[in-house]
Amino acid sequence: MRPVAILGIGQTQVDEHWEKSLREIGGEAIFAAMNDAGLEKADALYVGNMLSPLVNGQNQLGTFFSDWAGLWHKEAVKVEAACGSGAAAFRAALMAVASGEVEVAIALGVEKMTDKSGRDVTAALATAADADYEVEQGVSFVGLNALIMRRYMYEYGWKHADFAPFSINAHANAVHNPYARLRESITLEQFEKSAMVATPINLLDASPIGDGAAAAVLVPAEKVNALPGRPRVLVTGSASATDTIAVHSRRDPLFLSAAYQSARRAYQMAGVGADEIDVFELHDAFSIMSALSLEACGFAERGQGPRLGLEDQIRVGGRIPVCTRGGLKARGHPVGATGMYQIVEVVQQLRGECGPTQVDGARIGMAQNIGGSGATILTHILAVG
Amino acid sequence: MEIPRHWRLKKQRYALVGEVCPHCDYKIFPPRDVCPNCGDEAKTLYTFSGRGEVFSYTTIYEAPTGFDSMAPYTVALIKLEEGPMVTAQLTDLGDQPVEIGMPVEMVTRKMRNDGDERGVIVYGYKFRRRV
Q1: Has the ipTM of the complex gone over 0.90?
Q2: What does the angle CA A304 – CA A309 – CA A310 come to, to the nearest 5 degrees?
Q3: Do A123 and B100 touch (CB under 8 A)?
């Protein structure tokens, strides 16, 4: 396997893009990434998306986007792993280039969620869970996370307010990200008084959906030279792991074993440990997921994830800055696109393009994307090199 | 309309029929072909008692399509007496608050209408406070 570099990145703002179609937002990210890479052609396109058959009535997104982007006759395919689709597409592109089979690959994450009503989207999102034994009971995707959070609070004695720093940090960082959906800071009081979605998860524990797309261009590292002000960004670690599809089938529903497994393998591949990660874009679909990810990846002891927030360790300048561009909570969570936003944001950090939320001297960054309630988890480590 | 699917699941929905592993005696629900405990093949049917306790619970205010007329309703993870966990709605709750550790038992209830008012009525398990 040969080393792979990320030559270009592109993204659209996460928003309710009423005037733009699935085609247009996906195309925007592809063209932005190609432009950033200084390339006009690619050999293959890997599209991460979860909901297009249910929400947009469109399948075969590989060809759908290769056609739109002018990549006629090229290989193109969709990769689906629920909310983990973005990183799954990135990993497919990475393996294609690393293997020597493909020279220039584009990984695109795209989701157009506002073409259906909120209830229909809630039902579509629930298809990530077990249709026969979870969804049939009326449990929403938020509901599954709420079941985990309630038990976690019970076992470890945390109060709801103890999770506030995750959301407050994400919103504070999003203020400085022009691509974020919710560019406004929030207070502890707002967090506590927010409307209930599924107890104990309220609106400010939960990430907002949205329309969005983000893309990256991957090429063999040997073809890329660092330019002045533009360091070369390498993909040094990549791993994917799974858990049971249903939360009720897990021996321990309070531990993200797929996060543990994929992080462990990614650390090993990159030859680094948790203490060497400068910035971590984690999958904060719900505040509880931030705590569980930090624990599974070796940043906190079991049951102690919220402590990192309460002790101010997750902000830019802290021990492990997370969600530096707003995270899912405030940048927004266009589900199948999210994993690619995380990759793009880590590249921005390593290039030093993050303005007020730039992590000083960031050289190694990690992105972790979760499909379902911990069922598919992909971890990527990027480094300046 | 998903009639074949509802029909296929009737043993599980009406009688909580899972499996017992013939190799390690591990009790399995929902049924699956590989025992999660020992990794051997599991296909021996086993009917659960329907008794268990609440492991966790949530009240859902924003429900998916098909369930919105019932909101708010309470869904729980139930730890069955025989070991496995099941996701199910709690019913007949009255005014008393739900608590983790609360003993519950399975009952058969209407789950929802499949499709419009002419659709199949889906029945299945819910759990109530043990009486």
Answers
A1: yes
A2: 85
A3: no
